[in-house]
Amino acid sequence: MGKKVKVAGVELKDKISSLIYYFPCRAQPKKKKKVDVKKEQAQKERMKKKLKKLEKAAPELIPIEDFITPLKYSESSRMRSLPALSPQESERRVLLLKKWCLFKQKQDEAEKKAIKGLVESQQEALRELRLESEELYQAAVRRDEGLFPFQRDGPTYTPPLPGYDPPEGKCIDITKVYTQ
């Protein structure tokens, strides 16, 4: 065990960790590196040369992979050939299509007839109601706002707040980098 030391009325062990805890120390500031003017000038010159070289060279077009169809999909040999149908099968399909068309036509006519009957009975009921009471008729033909509720919010676009720095989320960048 280490010996105990009393500092400012507090008993401490002579371990360094306890001393650091009671007497916090600051780290010495790092010395700034001296900038060599000649090296910095040479680096600027190199960068200017690289920029001139890039400006002289014709820029390469970066391929857009989404618009390029692989050759294996554009081959004409990949066309599927339909199996030849027997005359009985083709006749069966034609008859089936005709029956389907007739069924859908009758279904449509029945629906239209039902709607027409409902509208006629509604008109008849409104005529009878008008003969009974004009107030009730006006209440019946008034539009019901709660039947089809309509809500409208304000503008969906708002300008950005000045000086607001949005937090960055996690994003995995899978963009291919092309060098020119």
Task: Please provide the ordered H/E string of secondary-structure elements.
Answer: EEHHHH
User: Main sheet?
Assistant: 2 strands, antiparallel
Distance between the termini: 68 Å
Percent strand:
under 5%
The strand order across the widest sheet is 1-2
Q: Report the C-alpha radius of gyration, rounded.
A: 43 Å
> What fraction, in percent, of the residue positions are helical?
40-55%
- Number of helical segments with 4 or more residues: 4
Multimeric state of these chains? single chain
Total beta-strand segments: 2
Q: What is the molecular shape?
A: flat
Output mean pLDDT.
Answer: 81
Low-confidence parts lasting 5 or more residues at pLDDT below 50?
none
The secondary-structure class comes to mainly alpha
Coiled coil: 30-57, 112-139
GO cellular component, one term: nucleolus
InterPro entries: Ribosomal_mL40 (IPR019192), Ribosomal_mL40_metazoa/plant (IPR039145)
Subcellular location: Mitochondrion
Question: How would you sum up this structure, described in words?
Answer:
The protein has helices at 16-22, 37-56, 87-132, 134-141; strands at 4-7, 10-13. The chain has 180 residues and is mainly alpha-helical. It has a domain at 103-141. A two-stranded antiparallel ribbon has the order 1-2. The longest helix has 46 residues, at 87-132. It is flat and about 105 Å long. Belongs to the mitochondrion-specific ribosomal protein mL40 family. One of its GO terms (cellular component) is mitochondrial large ribosomal subunit. InterPro entries: Ribosomal_mL40, Ribosomal_mL40_metazoa/plant.
